[in-house]
């Protein structure tokens, strides 16, 4: 992702908050496929839990935890690589192992939108030198992924159990918009134990140790004063929830950009 300085966000707590507010990441790997019909570059949408030991730390990157379907071709490619390495190296374990190549996870913001040149109140009327663009926010994470895939391994079972329990608890409390009138959140224990045990065999656990992280809020903050205000007014005039959200984010990012210049 091109992180132009005016759009880049490197504040770790801000990036952590973004991931937790938008936990559905796109995991991308580059692995030799296990089948000729599959691709070298593969991606999957995975909801993640972000773990850090100290949420107040301005530098700790943390780890991402999640799970994937065992039938996913991307999963098969990862397991095939680990199995191949284990066969070549007798000291390697095929139960829980880390891939040799880094992976990328991309988290996208909840709203993004086309920006018409008609929004610009300063440049368009004077020179006409304006073009359309697109405003959006995203965070990219690079790291090393360890997978837990051996159904006979206690460590794998414990990791997957914790992963699905933590993800369910997090999602039920942050993603459903439930009020107190709906009672207690749903939990994994509400399903039959034998049913959950069967489904656990159909997934693998993944844990990504983050090695690099960066964010991009491309929200027209590079535009001149009148043009920037025009974008805010243009989004507000749309009269939609998306337009309202975009206008507020453009306004916030504009203020941050001004503060950095001061």
TrEMBL record:
SUPFAM superfamilies: FMN-binding split barrel. Coiled coil: none annotated. It comes from the Eukaryota. Pfam families: FMN_bind_2. Signal peptide: none annotated. InterPro entries: Split_barrel_FMN-bd, TR_PAI2-type. This is Transcriptional regulator. It comes from Tetrapyrgos nigripes.
